[in-house]
Sequence to fold (454 residues):
Amino acid sequence: MRRHLRFAIPIALLALVFLGLYSQEKAARREVEREQARCRSASLPLTQSEWPSAHVSASNDAAPDYEAMAAQLDANDFSEAEYDLLDRMSGTKPVTAEEISRVRHAFEKRRLVMDTLFRTVEMPGYAYGADLSPAGLERDILGPARLRTAAKLMRDYAMLLAREGRYGEAAHTLALGYRIGSHTYSIPTIMGYLTGDAVDHIVSVGFQRLLQVAGPDPVATRAVRNATGSAPAPGSLAYALAGSIATDEGWFTAVRAGGYGEFSSGFAYGDPGRYTDPSLWKPGLSTFALRFSPTTYRTMVYGAEAAYLRTVRDAVTFADRPYAESQAETARLKAALNPRRRSNAYARSTVSMLESSLDRRAYTLASRSVLLASTDVLEYRARTGRFPDRLEQAMPHPPEDPFTGKRLMYQRKQTNGFVIFSAGPEGRSAPPRREDMYQAAFYYPRTPLPSERP
Fold:
């Protein structure tokens, strides 16, 4: 009898352990179901078939034309020397008539590509038919990349027109880049939003170069003001976050079946320690349990999914609010996610991406305001023969800086020039370095960057 009890007690204890683990998994799964129900109540898509872009009709879908344009460009791409010329044309250094002629000839050789591009930007929609198959993932990556390539082509062609002195046509062509941005912003993922922001940046820099090449030319300043003032608003970050839920829900389903290695290496672009305490991923008893107990592993993934859904559902409610308010809410979200809990790692990575996305959205809005203010200052120069001492002299109501809620900053140069700039997330009071990629500042005249100097 004692011998039987000696085996029965460990077996009973082991059964209790497994029962406890099963109860934890069941509770975690129910928490995910509750969060999913809350998302549905908030009209957030949980599957890709619920994406708004999934319902774009074929006749209104620009995606196939972007693919056709990319294929045409692959078959007849610019040479390295031609790309160097395009970069030179899109800068502010003087170019020769012979160089302008060579760039014009290069575009003539790609007439089919440009005709397809001009036809594509007129399409009202962009259907992003993403899926988690290998072919689908390839399209997910290539789709936004094609749109960015299209924006660069449009900018380079517009700068050719500007170099030919056709400032009005150049501004109209650059404004078509905003339509490419609208297509990109319609992709309901964070990748789509960030690519749309990159397209917006390409267009804004193009308008800056146009003004710096044209100077206080009334045709150029009027055309840039009209194009920028009538541009569609940048995309919604809340829309992108909401759409990302559908993709990430598919990912959680996949990693639940894939085991611990799939989760620990798959999220946060393969770098778990980037967004949470690296010690969480060192070998230890808990790591052993996750690797060799499927129930413990699934419980952790369910916990990560519930934390992610709760975080994104909250973030959607404030992501499009003014910068200071949305950043404060993001800090609150981050503080609520204990960095010592593995199940919070994916949600924390999402919050980190949200922080940088809010900065970039504010930069985009500030860049547009800087452009509008710059056209008024250049027109003031054309009227009076001098630059204003204060921005209010050129425009009674200067645009607000989205980072601070105060007016944009203006400095007149003693060497017959000026700079208009945003405070940025750092709250700077001096103009940013011109080498910064993401800045909301306009310099006139523009001094070439070190890499552009002979």
About this structure: Residues 266-285, 448-454 have pLDDT under 50 and may be disordered.
